[in-house]
Amino acid sequence: MYLPKLFGMKKINKEEVRQEVFDLYDRYAHNKIDRRSFVEQLSLYAIGGLTVPALLDFLMPKYQSKQQIRQNDPRVQSEYIEYDSPKGGGTIKGLLAQPKGNEEKLPGVIVVHENRGLNPHIEDVCRRAGLANFLALAPDALTPLGGYPGNDDDGRALQRKRDRAEMLEDFIAAYHYLQSHPMCTGKIGVVGFCFGGGIANKMAVQLPDLGAAVPFYGRQAATEDVPKIQAPLLLQYADLDKRVNAGWPEYEAALKANNKNYTAHMYPAVNHGFHNDTTPRYDEAAAKLAWERTIAFFNEHLR
């Protein structure tokens, strides 16, 4: 149900929203301010016919209406599985996806969620990777706390309660789970978004046999850890993402100094989260190009 239509609110076009509103949402989505402060500051931009309820509805994710590959899509076989993470959260739940009717071993791809657990959008991305002819696994780092709670506010609150080092171990354990899976070739890559992009960089440091890593607007690995990276990297950045981009020059210098195999793309005039098609930060052209590059990169390095 579309709230602006229901309550007579003005339908907002992305072009009429100031960049400061997207920056404010970024601060809220990354726990820099709480919801009360977010709403209070958002009211400063409720001008020219815009209202706070309309802006809130515009900014919040639309998980159900925006899915590209739904759970019942006949082209994809997906199921929830559990695997052991002895150095992390113990038993971790994840979504495993592959092409429907597949009978051949496939390269593996780990899909790492943002800072709010395995929400419907990341499950959708996992199914997209499965449809692209990979054995895709999207773990839920919130499993030890009951799993993704059904909304992002509570998801963010839960994820803050988990130890970051243990969460990294959960995704490393996912790598080992795929390595031993009878339908996996043993060649495995990782793609992650925001928090997941940072995890992808860290997995490249921790796993010398990782086949490929594709961090989307994720925190960079520590400079002193760059020599440990063996996997080829495809780094996807958003031009307007000042927060994450601040760490890129130092990271790039370290990658160059250590002769690492990397390709970086800075997508012009787009925000952090541009690949997430459930929020207005989404940029269709940049997201499609970035995903095409991601799949091509995995095909090149994992097959």
How would you concisely characterize the structure shown here?
The protein has 303 residues and is of the alpha/beta class.
End-to-end CA span: 43 Å
CATH level-four homologous superfamily name of the largest domain: Alpha/Beta hydrolase fold, catalytic domain
Helix content: 25-40%
Percent of residues in β-strands: 15-25%
How would you sum up this structure, described in words?
With 303 residues, this protein is an alpha/beta fold. It is built from eleven helices and eight strands. The protein has helices spanning 3-7, 19-29, 35-42, 52-59, 120-131, 152-160, 164-179, 195-206, 242-245, 248-257, 284-302; strands at 76-85, 90-99, 106-112, 135-139, 184-193, 212-216, 233-238, 262-267. It has an eight-stranded mixed beta sheet with strand order 1-2-4-3-5-6-7-8, with helices on both faces. It folds into two domains: 3-59, no CATH class; 76-302, Rossmann fold (3-Layer(aba) Sandwich).
Secondary-structure map with pairings?
Layout (H helix, E strand, L loop, with lengths): L2 H5 L11 H11 L5 H8 L9 H8 L16 E10 L4 E10 L6 E7 L7 H12 L3 E5 L12 H9 L3 H16 L4 E10 L1 H12 L5 E5 L16 E6 L3 H4 L2 H10 L4 E6 L16 H19 L1
Parallel strand pairs: 3-4, 3-5, 5-6, 6-7, 7-8
Antiparallel strand pairs: 1-2, 2-4
Helix pairs in contact: 2-3
